[in-house]
Design goal:
about 120 residues, mainly beta, Jelly Rolls, 10 strands
């Protein structure tokens, strides 16, 4: 069976993690009709530091930690991360969670969340 790469725009709006809420967490839910769950995928998003310093956060997909970056300065980045096989779910709700684990000041905005994945045709 042929396999193709596809993508899903998960969220085009911004979400914010802030230092005023320790352990701040934001979740995004989405569904995929027919992903090849045995294949790897790529999660990408924009990250904009708003006066944030010494910032650490976790990204989890369906409860599996996929990223734990640490930054010490401000700026604007695009991040992409390869997601292991068998993390995505077919025909049921998937979840991405962004969790601030260490944010001393300021806030961080996450936007344009996109997932590239494989599916059989």
């Amino acid at each position: 069976m042929p396999r193709v790469a596809d993508y899903k725009i998960i969220k085009d709006d911004k979400i914010t993690l802030t230092s005023t809420a320790p352990g701040d967490s934001q979740e995004v839910n989405f569904e995929l009709d027919s992903p090849h769950v045995g294949g790897r995928s790529i999660l990408a998003f924009k990250l904009d530091y708003i006066d944030a310093h010494n910032f650490e956060f976790k990204v989890k997909v369906n409860g599996t930690q996929v990223l734990n970056p640490r930054y010490s300065g401000g700026g604007f980045f695009t991040i992409h991360e390869v997601i292991d096989a068998n993390v995505l779910h077919a025909k049921k709700t998937n979840n991405i969670q962004f969790i601030a684990t260490n944010l001393h000041s300021g806030s961080v905005r996450i936007a344009d969340i996109v997932l590239w994945y494989q599916h059989d045709i």
